[in-house]
């Protein structure tokens, strides 16, 4: 990284932190790699994938990702481009892991949604988009694979608007498609940018830019493409939504870009516009009001915990999003939820593809802190304000449940340790029947694939084999303690009463009819859909 003598404020203002979401295979990894290529963080494309497979070799619980071709957890990368310092948060594409995506989005200031131009909006895009929408952050759309024959660009815009329910506004418009994909037209600058081969995407694509009316483009594009572009632009100007920065920043309008991550065409124009439009970290809400990122008091929150990223180290990392102030290695901070002071000794950052020890970091950055088992998702760390708490990270209500126990009673200790750690990571939610010990646990997950990951990780990381019986419950409700009459509680046959990790009473139902029945039978009973 380049050493610059920038002030704290300059450092904050050059930060951009975004999450990247897509249906599997739309090209998220390829696009991320090309960002790194343009940022100079890697010298030639192709290295991310091979690094990824190397990582699989050491971090073998990720084997499951490889086997199924899906990304189970999200990771973080930092790189520099044009004096911006950019943090990318990768998210799992599969909907069964949308809980992880949600937590990751809590740490992002905007999102980039990658769509395959031949497929349009796909199933997982929808779900992930909804999660972004809940956060109200700006959502940028990158329509990828324009080097392949795909849907008509106008149809793709309609698809986004109809399926996702968000208005769209193209910033870059494609010139040709498939083999004839030549470049993009920037509607803001009224400028054409045509690309040259770029060594099949291995290196930065060279380009020719100029005004749309410039004669040379008639020759370069040919009469047909040039005319078609002019017609498209006229149509967009008349029929499309106009660019409205406020609406974009509020997540009500998505700016759309076209390109090909594979050939690099359109990648850099996207990156440049993205950096122009997005803002540095904004104030975050907390129990003490909005916290200004430019305030010099260091603060941040834990949004993700991941154990055993590297099996040989058996480490557990808590991911901290910095919200204000400068972070310095070795600093002592308040761990608000535990009411304790802790020293942040070996903080790590994820620069391009590597983990490095970090000396300093700024609002917008994500650092990994070694976690000896003291952190929970949502915890706040703060240098001076021991009472500061960032708004909590809500849990998704689980929709699938299973009863699990270990097949080997000698391994009970390991079993409970594994379950506890995975629950702390937020990978599963644990419930138990009141008055029954920890012999039998009920696990709740949002997506069924999480069960597979649970079984796999318990085996690989803790040497524990489990038996798992799926349960028919589909709905969960937390009982408002003050309305709960334990001695005179009427329950239906197909419903069970359990406790969550904090011993709160919780009901598991098979259908919505039973939910209504319980409310009718128990006067005054209040049920909540979330734990907080
Ligand atoms: P992810 O699952 O969203 O991370 O998708 P990947 O980046 O792994 O890409 C999935 C497949 O699509 C890979 O075979 C890529 O080489 C291919 N791909 C990605 N971007 C493009 C593109 O712009 N054009 C074409 N033709 N293929 C692409």
From TrEMBL:
Predominant cellular place of this UniProt entry's protein = cytoplasm
Q: Which SUPFAM superfamilies match?
A: EF-G C-terminal domain-like, P-loop containing nucleoside triphosphate hydrolases, Translation proteins
| Domain of life assignment | Bacteria
The answer, when asked if Phosphoprotein is one of the entry's keywords, is no
Q: Which residues form the Tr-type G domain?
A: 13-282
Recorded GO MF terms:
GTP binding; GTPase activity; translation release factor activity, codon nonspecific; translation release factor activity, codon specific
Annotated GTP binding sites: 22-29, 90-94, 144-147
The UniProt entry, under InterPro entries, shows: EF-G-like_DII, EFG_III/V, G_TR_CS, P-loop_NTPase, PrfC, RF3_C, RF3_dom_3_sf, RF3_GTP-bd
Give GO BP annotations, semicolon-separated: regulation of translational termination
Q: Which residues form a coiled coil?
A: none
Q: Where in the cell is it found?
A: Cytoplasm
> What keyword terms does UniProt attach to this protein?
Cytoplasm, GTP-binding, Nucleotide-binding, Protein biosynthesis
What GO terms fall under cellular component here? Answer: cytosol
Q: Family, per the entry?
A: Belongs to the TRAFAC class translation factor GTPase superfamily. Classic translation factor GTPase family. PrfC subfamily.
Role according to the record: Increases the formation of ribosomal termination complexes and stimulates activities of RF-1 and RF-2. It binds guanine nucleotides and has strong preference for UGA stop codons. It may interact directly with the ribosome. The stimulation of RF-1 and RF-2 is significantly reduced by GTP and GDP, but not by GMP.
Give the protein name, as stated in the record: Peptide chain release factor 3
Q: What is the lineage of its organism?
A: Bacteria, Bacillati, Bacillota, Clostridia, Peptostreptococcales
Q: State which gene encodes it.
A: prfC
